[in-house]
Amino acid sequence: MSHNKHTFAVLLAGGGGTRLWPKSREQTPKQFLKLFGNETMLQYTARRVAKLVPWEKIIVVTNTKYQKEVLQQLPKILQSNIIAEPEKKDTALAMLVGTLYAHSLDPEAVIINSASDHVVRNETEFVRVMQAAVRVAEKNKSLVTVGITPTYPATGFGYIKIGSDIEKIDTGLTLFSVNSFTEKPNYPTARAFISTGKYFWNANMYVWSATTLLAAFESHMPEMLAQTRALIEAKGDAFIKLLPKIYTQSESISIDYAISEKAKNLVLIPGDFGWNDVGDWKVVYELETKDSAGNVIINESNTSEVLTIDSSNNLIHSDGRLIALMGVRDMVVIDTEEILMIVPKGKSQDVKKIIERLKKEEKTKYL
What is the pLDDT of residues 87-97, one digit of tens each? Predict the structure, then answer.
């Protein structure tokens, strides 16, 4: 547990992502799915940050349509700490609102920001790195980003280039200045980035004090800060009642574009704790436990069955019916009550083409 009594955690759980369609859909995005064991990704995330802060200091920023689901999945969270956004406005506003809520509870608040749908394999190292980030944020009045040590030339992640070393802050941990951001490079560029040792994956994992973030918005996004300023003095229900008007007025922009790429006091701590944002079904396959034939079988229901004969290296997600595979290799088979999807594992990223087709044909009930 962190020793800083002013530390809070803000979990972003408002996304309605469809990259893991057809399980992840607008009504049930991936943070509410059980993809890796008996807990949902939201539950794993909350349990992980509960090693850093008490449950009563975990704040969840979600969407109004997911508010009941969050409360059901996280009964240890204070109901008053679940902030329901009236509409989606990207990460800058969500993180600012979460920070302002923490500030309303404690003007000296230091906030750990985390997505609710990412995987962390080494939780002990995660805790160590985040505790170091909290100390830096509190001591140096810096905006701290945790850059993920890249393990391969990923083209689905953004990259952060570091500048000079600032200081050694812990055994094996160095604080760096930030040079630049790059959005999702192509493969040759990503490979060149990694070869320099100067680039880290951008996980949108930030730690800052409330006062430091407010100063950053004052400098770089004064209009958004002005629109939310009434929240600084608001408490409880009054805070929530102000949100609809604020969200109607405010710009939709990511925290990177709004603040991170402009701030002079942004610093980076490397994180090497088995992070992944689980961007498609192939990633789920790579992260999951496999049987002797290399198949990954995920059962949502205790009654579901999967039968494989001469079939290997497949991902099968069953939703209750018997699924039988014969002579099938390197495929993704996802079965839901309404939809059966079968796609080559190597084409997992192309699931977005199905979404585009459904939108074009106005088959919105499947989105």
Answer: 999 999 999 99
